[in-house]
Amino acid sequence: MILLTIVCYGASTAAYTAFLVRQKKTFYHAGVALLSAGFGLHLILVLTGTFHSGHLPVNTMRDTLSFGAMCVAGVFLLFQYRYRLKVLGVFAAPLAAATMVIVSLMPATSAPAQPILKSLWLVAHVTFIFMGEASLALACGLGILYLVQEKAIKSRKPGFFFRRLPSLDRLDSAGQTCILAGFVLMTLGLATGLVYAKAVWGRFWSWDPKEVWSGITWMLYAVLIHERLALGWRGRRAAIMAIVGFATVLFTFLGVNLFMSGHHGAFSG
What's residue 269's pLDDT? Predict the structure, then answer.
C-alpha cells in the first residue's frame, strides 16, 4: 500500500511539473486525479493502522511522518477545490511524495500500545495540529512562488516563470488564507493538547521542549497575522515570514523529536 501511495504521489508530481512547463489542462487534471488517488490509498493505510493498533498510528516517527504527508495531500486538495491555484501542486505533490519515500526507508518498528494513545482528545489534538501544519506548509510554498515570481517580474527578461505563475496579488492573498487557516487549526490543536495533557499527565503545561517550541511557533504566526492586519505587512516581507515560520514548524516537529527529550517522545519512538 505504501508503494502504491508513493507511485501515485510521484506520478502526480510528474504531471504537475509537466503542467508547469506545458500549461496544458490535461496534465493538471492528471495531477489532481493522481494526488486524489494517492490520498485515498494513504487514508486507507492510516485507517487500517488505526484498526489494527486500536489507536491513531502516531507513536513512531515513521507513523507521524506518514500522517503528516497525508494531511499535506488532503489539505492541498481542499485548498485546490476552493481556490483553483493550479500551480501549487508543484510544491504539495513532491512534498508528499518525498516524505513517503523517507517513510518507506525507515524501519517498520512496532511500539507497544499505551493507554495514553487511546484518547479522543489525542485524535483531535493530532488532527488539528497536522492539518494546521499542512496549511502552513502550503503558505511556505506560496511564499517561495511569490519570491520567484517577484524576481521574474523585476528582471529585464521575465521569461519562464513570469508566464506560468499567478500574479503577485493572487499568490499573496492565497498565502494569507493558508496562514489564517493554519493558525486557527494550530490554535485548536494546542487547546485540545492542553486538555489532553491535563487528562494524561495531570497538568496543562509542563515546559516540555515540544510544548515550548509549539508556543514559540504559535506566537510567531500570531505576530505575522497581527502585523499583516495592523501594519499592512504584505508581499515580499510576508512571503519571507511564511518561509521562516514553516522552518520553525519543521524544527518543532523534527528537530525537537530528534535532539531534545521530553514526554512527547512517546509519539516519536
Answer: 45
